Amino acid sequence: MSFLKRFAENRGALLGLVILAAIVFVALAAPVLSPTDPWATQGRPLLPPGSDFVLGTDMLGRDVLAGIIHGARISLWIGVLSTVVAVVIGVSIGALAGFFGGWVDDVLVRVVEFFQTIPSFIFAILLVAILTPGLTSIVVAIAVVTWPPIARLARSEFMSLRSREFVEAAVLSGVSRGRIMLAEVLPNAVSPLIVMGSLMIATAILTESALSFLGLGDPNRISWGYMIGAARTVFRQAWWLSVFPGLAIVLTVLAINLVGEGLNDALNPHLKGRIGLER
Amino acid sequence: MRPQRTINRWATGLAAAAVALAVSGAAAQAEPQRGGTLNSTLWPEPPGIVIGINLNAPTLLPSTKIFEGLLTYDFQLNPQPMLAESWEVSEDGLTYTFNLRDDVTWHDGEPFTSQDVVYTLTEFIPEVHARSRPTFARAKVEAPDDHTVVLTLEEPYGPLIRSFDAIGAPIVPEHVYAGSDIRENPVNRSPIGTGPFKFSEWKSGEYIHLVRNDDYYLDGRPYLDEIYYRFIPDSASRALALETGQVQLATQNDIELVDLGRLEAMPHLEVTTKGWEWGAPISWLEMNHRREPFGDVRFRKAVMYALDHAFIRDNIFFGYAKVPTGPIHSSSPFYTDDVVTYEHDPDKARALLDEMGLTPDGDGVRAEIGLLGLPYGELWDRLSQYIKQALGEVGVEVTLEASDVAGWGSRIANWDVDMSTTYLTTLSDPALGVARSYITDNQKKGVLFTNTAGYSNPEVDRLFAEAASEPNHEKRLEMYHEVQKIIADEVALAWLAELQWPTVHDAKLKNVVRNGLGPNDNFAEAYFEQ
């Protein structure tokens, strides 16, 4: 069965893909869909949904819909970017540890464990606070707290592949270690990593929202978490300020999770239906 | 405004009148009852609780219960007795004699004497109290006996009589501070004062706990057993705590102004905007004149034109503010509105920027600057966001910078900032609370709430200096009007709003706001009706 066919067999995954595609489209087309600055005052403050503004206005008369559209860019961008950084760190360390074993493995596993013993969200808050809130510091913080599980996964994959015949053959024929790792082992280990990476994007988006909610977001960029955080004081007067960005987060994270599951089914057919991924 | 000469007459009449007033006031109300715990919100957690060493707003609220001044002030800012039971000002306005109470002891049991007052005014305040330093530098302070203090001036100084409250001149114990490094003295974390409440505990991140001073010099007072100042970091939770009765008092920034209407409607809560008369706070956008383009008056004017002050008043302060016209608060007797005003006019702003040569680049950006917003909560965040947006409209791209309170203070104090938002009490007399932000002499690097913007105009310096020591009220008025005209025309600071702080308290809590110091009163008289 082809990859696409296996993926399409999972109805949920298809639905997730459609939603995700829509969100990505909104994020990419944000300057066209909502050409004005999302921070700009557009109307009277605290207008309820309906009226001139589909999703209402916030305390400074800013359009909530524009905030959600532009917020999609930041949420997805931070989600993808921090995951890429985490995957690069995690796979490099995991690969080295799993491939070489011995003392290299011992040392690197200790390092991974060190990071895993620190409560990840608290650690992220600490990092952002020290680095002063901004796009880069948030990406760094999320990457730093999320790479250890990837490293563990990469390590176990590399470890089991290391003893396979094709790797031994490559070693005997004198191919360099680096080349073996990149060209022989990595392609065979990549499917579980892709699945895990896709799910991590969802986690990263949630973490960014939580940081922004606490006021540790980039103060110059509108994000869903920030919108909820800024609106929580007026929740009783203006529910729409928190509810719509909240729905946007739920929808995005749900869509990514569904797609991740579909990828899992498609890439690891023998695990089909099993959700217990190491996280 | 009363003429200088009558002040001495208060010495005989006022103390008695005050006592009579207090008695008649008490008779009109129910008899105060002993007991009870007052829980108040306090946000943000202050960096310290010794007034003078710290002058941040959240420092003052707990600290004014521990430390007292020689005098306190009523709603019209007339002096009332506190540690001094009577006082006398000589005919020529050069000699101030204070007769101190002889029944006061410090919280550690030592007796309070005139030596403590001399130490405070000549050592403590000059060393740490940025705001009162210039006031008391004018006076020679002597103690002819244990319970008398005499201040001698070289020239009259009108504002002096309104400088003896617990905030402007908190009296500290000489036996604790003498010979020590005042700022580093360990007692600063558990201060010793004369007030009706003693410091008990400061639980970092949770609360400051004060307990009743059983040896307080006023019979039967204070009525309350203890006060908790609780740090509740989220304004929605603070409002909820008031609603549910977990706290009985919140003031200043503590409650989101948008919540006030709802709280006011609750039968168990009362809201008042009285009690900040001593402060007359003005919020402004400070531009660092030492950096380009802020040194150019055209840029500062452009900023004023770009901001919609009515929007700020109505939508950020929800009507709990007035539009300021310049450096002096409209409630001050020295105020004039006969100054240049800046209506919201983005086109004028753009024209001024064009004239400066700050033309828009391909993205419509004329200048890029940073804004360090006051980190006192959501309201101030929204103010920063509004400024960013309003200036963005005329092509000035603002980057918002985030910080905690300590970082905010240290960056402004060390002139390491483009623009910042703040608010400052302008106090009862321009010489006390206004001049400090504009005179060249008061550019003191490292000290917050000085002329950190770096504004400098010799004419303004001269007018402030002469007005401070001018005995004739009419002449002072004239000089202060002139100063307002110059400063408003040069936009030394971009004034944003005259603040009207609400105080929300449980209806059962009485005597919370009973004079011009409002919630910064010592609360000796506050009590819970049962």
Commentary on this structure:
The complex is a heterodimer of chains A (279) and B (530). The mean pLDDT of chain A is 89. Chain A is mostly helical and 279 residues long. Chain A is elongated and about 75 Å long. Chain A has one domain (2-278): MetI-like fold (Orthogonal Bundle). Chain A is built from 11 helices and no strands. Chain B has 530 residues and is α+β, with helices and mostly antiparallel strands. Chain B has a domain at 281-499: Dipeptide-binding Protein, domain 3 (Roll). Chain B is built from 15 helices and 21 strands. In chain B, the strands form 6 sheets. In chain B, strands 14-18-13-17-15-16 form a 6-stranded mixed β-sheet. In chain B, helix 8 runs antiparallel to helix 10 and helix 14 (458-469) packs antiparallel against helix 15. The longest helix of chain B is centred in the first third of the chain and has 22 residues, at 7-28. The chains are: A mainly alpha (279), B alpha+beta (530). At the A-B interface, loops of A face helix 6, helix 9, helix 11 and strand 16 of B.
How would you briefly describe this protein structure?
Chain A is mostly helical and 279 residues long.
Task: Give the end-to-end Cα distance of chain B, rounded to a whole number of Å.
Answer: 41 Å
Q: Greatest interface and its residue counts?
A: A-B, 21 and 26 residues
**Number of distinct beta strands of chain B:** 21
How much helix, percentage-wise, in residues of chain B?
Answer: 25-40%
CATH architecture of one domain in chain B: Roll
Count of helical stretches of chain A: 11
CATH topology of one domain in chain B: Dipeptide-binding Protein, domain 3
The parts of chain B where pLDDT drops under 50 for at least 5 residues are: 1-28
Radius of gyration of chain A: 22 Å
CATH superfamily of one domain in chain B: Dipeptide-binding Protein, Domain 3
CATH architecture of chain A: Orthogonal Bundle
